[in-house]
Fold:
Amino acid sequence: MLHLENITIAYNHTVIVDSLTIQVKDSEIVSIIGPNGAGKSTVLKAIMNLGDTRITSGEILFMGDNIRGITTHQIISKGISYIPQGNAVFTTLSVEENLKIALTTSGNGKTTLNYIYDRFPVLLEKRKEAANKLSGGEKQILGLARALVNKPRLLLLDEPSIGLSPKLSSEVFDRIRTLKREGTSVILIEQKVKEAIAASDRVYILKAGKIYFEGGKDEVQQSEHLKKAYLGG
Structure:
């Protein structure tokens, strides 16, 4: 589905990510983990052509098409959605207004709104409330729902559980697993590393902008070295 081939990303002539190759298959959850400053969020922004970083070499292939350099709007229309760290909701608007704004680019109209409410009943219950009245977990769900109105083939998630209680974090991870069952692939960057790996099919570990490890989640969970370094022992 998605193939990043030897991608190098720079900011102000400083290389942030160097010769990165990552693959995501259909209906697969892939985690990218690593220390702060490793370049994890930069990878997602590069895929979406966002921010001040620039790709200096390599290709980004999605469904066989090279999407490197095309506009963010075009990338979304091809079936990729992105939820940045801290989610992306308009707090002064109602829940339903947030969804309708996202719908303006999808062309799916009422059908998609019903699709969202069927999957997130809490949003139906609170559709007239201002987003700033929602709990942290409800805001995360609204951010997730906004990304799903385009019915993406691939969803990029940057720290979806940040600031949430363990219970709400668990609900977010349950939603991510449901997306996989429904055919959406996910790239996940997450501070709760154990939970992220448990939800994933495969894992990439980034260190100083380069791939340090690539493999299945079982390999990480069974490696004493990797467990000690990234899972707290």
